[in-house]
């Protein structure tokens, strides 16, 4: 027993294992990955160890897992928000959190109010859209897609070759707005509205002519489900290119507040002079 005890006392303290950290500076030494924080927490749960001294003079070393400190949680939460922005297409914190809560069937936070300005210097246009909406690239056409996936409200911006002189630009905008490539990828029957139900008016801003269009649209899915929408659009041509912005909502959800929301999006649209 005495020899065994001396053997323990003379045994040198364990060197820190590779991948482990001292408790006071554990988080400082962690290099964040550009990947999502789920990797960060899995790695930490396996490898983050602390070396604690006992009250004995021999300074025997033991290992135990470190529970995350408040600072660790804050920094990792920031990484979650960053990843959420990449995955959901928005930098609005409430929208990102709600997307996670919704996935688990949990109650959501109140939706963010107000508008954000879309102003990309590489693009020829600017406009405002609701802060809580999510952005997606339009992979089938040149443009961008914004939507509230809780209500199916959306705004779609498209850029295309301006119709030749004498050709009806209004019908071109309407037909693109309800085309399968934009709506449901050909998985339904799209019905163009009667021309008598299409209302339009023109206005001029900064020397550029804008046409504002209102029309209903109808989609019949393969299962026979009928979806009706109300649409408000604006279009302007510059240097042979046509830029159109369509804002729409389902007819069964349409009300005065919804109309004002869509109207604000459309009226904020401008093509750079």
Can you put this structure into words, describing what you see?
This protein is of the alpha+beta class and 273 residues long. It has two domains: 2-87, no CATH class; 109-271, Protein Transport Mog1p, Chain A. Helices cover 26% and strands 33% of the residues. It has six helices and 13 strands. The strands form three sheets. Strands 5, 6, 7, 8, 9, 10, 11 and 12 form an eight-stranded antiparallel sheet that branches. A three-stranded antiparallel sheet has the order 3-4-13. The chain has a two-stranded antiparallel ribbon with strand order 1-2. β3 and β4 (125-130) form a beta hairpin. α3 (70-88) packs across α4 (93-103). The model is unreliable at 1-63, 84-89 and 180-186 (pLDDT under 50).
Features:
2 domains; Protein Transport Mog1p, Chain A; eight-stranded antiparallel beta sheet; 273 residues; alpha+beta; disordered N terminus
Helix content bin: 25-40%
Q: What is the strand content?
A: 25-35%
From the alpha carbons, calculate the radius of gyration and give it in angstroms.
29 Å
Helix and strand content put the structural class at alpha+beta
Topology-level CATH name of the largest domain: Protein Transport Mog1p, Chain A
């Amino acid at each position: 027993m005495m020899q065994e005890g001396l053997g323990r006392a003379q045994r040198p303290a364990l060197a820190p294992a590779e991948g482990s950290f001292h408790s006071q500076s554990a988080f400082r030494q962690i290099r964040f990955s550009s990947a999502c924080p789920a990797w960060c927490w899995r790695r930490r749960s396996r490898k983050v160890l602390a070396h604690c001294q006992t009250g004995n003079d021999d300074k025997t070393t033991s290992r135990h897992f470190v529970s995350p400190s408040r600072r660790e949680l804050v920094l990792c939460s920031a990484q979650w928000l960053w990843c959420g922005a990449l995955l959901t297409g928005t930098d609005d914190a409430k929208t990102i959190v709600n997307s996670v809560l919704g996935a688990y069937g949990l109650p959501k936070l109140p939706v963010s109010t107000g508008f954000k300005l879309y102003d990309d210097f590489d693009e020829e246009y600017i406009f405002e859209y609701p802060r809580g909406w999510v952005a997606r690239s339009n992979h089938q056409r040149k443009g961008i897609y914004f939507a509230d996936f809780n209500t199916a409200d959306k705004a779609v911006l498209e850029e295309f070759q301006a119709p030749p002189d004498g050709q009806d630009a209004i019908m071109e905008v309407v037909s693109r707005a309800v085309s399968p490539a934009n709506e449901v990828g050909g998985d339904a029957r799209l019905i163009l509205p009667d021309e008598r139900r299409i209302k339009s008016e023109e206005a001029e801003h900064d020397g550029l002519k804008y046409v504002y269009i209102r029309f209903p649209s109808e989609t019949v899915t393969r299962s026979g489900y009928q979806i009706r929408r109300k649409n408000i659009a604006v279009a302007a041509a510059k240097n042979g290119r046509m830029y159109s912005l369509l804002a729409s909502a389902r007819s069964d959800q349409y009300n005065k507040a919804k109309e004002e929301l869509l109207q604000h999006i459309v009226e904020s649209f401008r093509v750079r002079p």
